[in-house]
Amino acid sequence: MNMMSPKKTKYRKQHKGRIHGNAKGNFKLNFGNYGLKAMEPERITARQIEAARKAITRHLKRAGRLWIRIFPDLPVSKKPAEVRMGKGKGSVEFWACRVKPGRIMFEVDGVPTADAKQALELAAAKLPIKCKFVGRDI
């Protein structure tokens, strides 16, 4: 299965940057009744998003509906091992997404609360940050 990445970008490589402050958007549930909220700032890779997506869909046995609210649009470059300094920036190794605290990353609907909670906790285990289960009725 191919992972998420942009079809085309304006520039091939980007600066590393820093993740400051809290999410200024996407901090409320917009689609489903349950969601997974980021509690820490971190870069989340396309592989991690895909692993979390698989964990959710497998647990819910493809019942209900899943929304992925983050997209990896940040090219992360890396130089090969044991290469001397200089000679330019490395090639793009993977795609990542900058996630700020408070951001809703995944939403599910059409399943019981207990199932949604379990599925999103399994997904949270695949991610490198502390996450929180949120729901409209909780």
On the 0 to 100 scale, the average pLDDT is: 95
What is the radius of gyration?
A: 17 Å
Strand order within the widest beta sheet: 3-6-1-7
Q: Which CATH C-level class of the domain at 34-80 and 88-135 is it?
A: Alpha Beta
First-to-last CA distance: 35 Å
CATH homologous superfamily heading of the domain at 34-80 and 88-135: Ribosomal protein L16/L10
**What is the helical fraction, as a range of percent?**
10-25%
Order of helices and strands: EEHEEEEHE
* Alpha plus pi helix count: 2
Main beta sheet? 4 strands, antiparallel
Q: Beta-sheet strand percentage? A: 25-35%
Strand runs, count: 7
Low-confidence stretches: none
Question: What best-fitting shape do the alpha-carbon axes yield?
Answer: elongated
CATH topology of the domain at 34-80 and 88-135: Aldehyde Oxidoreductase, domain 3
